[in-house]
Write a structure and sequence with these properties.
The protein contains nine helices and no strands. It is mainly α. The longest helix is centred in the N-terminal third of the chain and has 23 residues, at about 25-45. α3 (about 55-75) crosses α4 (about 85-105).
Length: about 210
Amino acid sequence: MRELDPESAAWVDALEDSGGPGYEQACARLHKLLVRIAMDDVFRRGPRYRITGPELNDLAHQAAADALMRITHKIHDFRGEARFTTWAYRFVMLEVSSKLGRHFWRVSNARFDPEEWSQIPDRAGVDPVSHSQARELVEAVRDAVDTALSARQRQVFTALVVNGVPLEKLASELETNRNALYKTMFDARRKLRARLVASGHIGTVG
C-alpha cells in the first residue's frame, strides 16, 4: 500500500474500525458526500431516462446507500492509488449507472432519443435500417434483453451499452477482467441478434 495522504488515511482509519467511536460519524459524513455526488449525476442524466421529480431523489439516495455499503465492505482493499474520495466516487457513479439501467428496462414507455439511439446500435451490434424503425427496434431489443439474456449478460449489456460505463471500471467493479466482459458481450450480442432475426426485426447476415 502506498503512503496515504492525511485525509484518505483519516477516512480509512475511521471506516476500518467498525466498532470505534468515529465509525458512525465517518459513515454519516461519507453518505452525505455520496448523496451529493449521486444527486448531481441523476439530475444530469435522469431526463434521458424519462425520470423526473421525487423518483430522482429516491434513486440518488438508494445509489448512495448501496455505494456506502460496498465501500465499507471493501475498505480493506483500498490501496491509495488515488485519493479516498476519488475511490469512493467510482462506487457511487457505478451504482447510479446500474440503477438508471434497471429503471430503463423496467419502465415500459422508456425510449432512447434519436441521438442516443445513433450511438447504441454500434455497441449492441444491431443496426436499424432507418431512424423510423428505431422505436420499434428498441422495443424489440428491450424485450430480447429481458427474455433472452442471462442475468449476468443483462447486467453487463446495460452497463456497457445503455449507460456507457467504461470497460475497465466495470471490470473492476465486477471483479473480473476485460476478456471475460468481451466474452459476455459477444454471447449477449449473438443471442440478441438471433432473437431479432427470428422476430423479423433485422435480416440475416450474408
